[in-house]
Specification:
It comes from Streptomyces celluloflavus. The chain has 419 residues and is an all-alpha fold. 66% of the residues lie in helices and 0% in strands.
Length: 419
């Protein structure tokens, strides 16, 4: 019974991002939930046994002849199938891992507090990921920034604040697995930055659009945005980290397009830019440091199939990453394990993979879960090796926990992230 229950819970975990299940739970329509599980190959006998109801009663629910009404039955279903309590209007269940609420600003007022809001959101994002911050950023934009755009006394700085916070909302949407929404925010941010006259900010937004294009597999668009960003950067105060980031995005786009010599030249320029003395700082520009550069170089060299060099930079990125930057550290670990897999060093995959599984499971990042899912599919080809097979068992258990913790931010756009 224990093994069957675990399989059933895994089936439910794989459906937590499905809009049909989310709607069924919101409506407390257990008949639809049971039908979804049955369509996934779970027998009615197993469903009825887990829910502690008769098969006759189960058929009544599935056929719409009756609905679950009693609180204790909803609690039985939530606990048996590991459906997070909030999805059924219940209190947090005893088996749900405790998740600390991210400390973002509820209300930061107006005017000079835009920079404080950005800093607070960035600090929270480092720890929790952007998935649970998206609504707070959009709310701050709507309530504290948007109305000042039409105030004649506000000045150009409010357009810069609106641009920077719109770009941040784009990153939060991207971290939630909603890349279409992320691009809309970036598209809104760029004209606002240009209206403010802040060319470094415009260059920063172009770099973000280039990154998003790479994530969605559009190397041509990534190249376009990286070049546009470099043009913007050439007309404003020189910010070394921003220039390095743009050259790195250009290098990755070129590597994805198999222009390897040009990609290497762009990596060299990125190194030179980051090592140059900074001529200016900028409150709205995204941080880009040695760890960021090492991580992006590792990805570029991986795409160029220069795995030994890529490995050195991936190791450097993990070593430089602060433990307080949970998402960046998780992504760097994923890159490291992926490169070991490309090198067919399976013992290293298992060793570093075990470290990867210890990274913050409550991290609100669908992007991290998607990359973990890609890694798992890659490792499936090696499950004939016993240590890899054992590791995949641990991996699946960890993935289930992450899915449960992400249930409140997953959307239909995030389907397919289950192991």
């Amino acid at each position: 019974m224990g093994h069957e229950l675990e399989d059933l819970r895994m089936a439910v975990a794989g459906l937590l991002g499905d809009s049909r299940l989310q709607h069924a739970c919101a409506e407390r329509d257990m008949g639809t939930l049971f039908r979804l599980l049955n369509h996934r190959g779970v027998s009615t006998r197993r469903i009825a046994t887990a829910a502690q109801i008769t098969q006759g009663r189960l058929y009544e629910y599935m056929n719409g002849k009756s609905r679950v009404q009693k609180l204790e039955v909803f609690e039985q279903i939530a606990d048996a199938f590991h459906i997070p309590g909030h999805m059924l209007g219940l209190a947090r269940r005893s088996w749900e891992p405790q998740v600390d609420e991210p400390a973002w600003p509820r209300s930061l007022g107006t005017g000079g507090n835009d920079h404080a809001a950005m800093d607070a959101f960035r600090d929270a994002d480092k720890q929790t990921g952007g998935g649970r911050l998206y609504g707070a950023v959009v709310r701050h934009l709507r309530e504290n920034v948007a109305r000042r755009l039409v105030d004649a006394e506000s000045g150009p700085q409010v357009f810069a604040a609106a641009a920077a916070l719109s770009e941040m909302a784009g990153w939060m949407a991207h971290d939630s697995g909603r890349d279409d929404l992320a691009q809309k925010h970036f598209d809104q941010a760029l004209p606002l930055a240009r209206a403010s006259g802040d060319t470094p900010l415009a260059a920063n937004i172009a770099a973000s659009s280039s990154h998003l294009a790479l994530q969605t597999g559009n190397a041509a668009q990534a190249t376009h945005w990286a070049r546009a960003g470099l043009q913007f950067a050439g007309h404003g105060a020189r910010i070394s980290s921003l220039t390095a980031r743009l050259h790195t995005m250009h290098a990755r786009a070129l590597a994805a397009s198999e222009h390897h010599l040009m990609a290497q030249r762009e990596l060299d320029r990125a190194h030179q830019a980051l090592n140059a003395s900074a001529e200016a700082t900028h409150p709205w520009v995204s941080p880009f440091d040695a760890a960021s550069l090492a991580s992006e170089i590792a990805l570029t060299l991986r795409d160029m199939e220069r795995y030994e060099e890529a490995l050195r930079h991936a190791q450097e990125a993990v070593g430089l990453r602060e433990s307080g930057r949970a998402r960046s550290l998780a992504l760097s670990h994923i890159t490291l394990v992926t490169i070991h897999a490309h090198r067919a060093d399976l013992d290293a995959v298992v060793h570093f993979g075990a470290e990867l599984l210890t990274t913050n499971p409550s991290l609100g990042s669908v992007r991290v879960v998607n990359q973990l899912s890609d890694l798992r599919r890659m490792l499936e080809d090696h499950r004939g090796y016993r240590p890899v097979r054992d590791f995949l068992t641990q991996f699946d258990a960890s993935a289930k926990t992450r899915l449960l913790l992400l249930a409140d931010i997953m959307t239909p756009h995030s389907e397919g992230i289950s192991p």
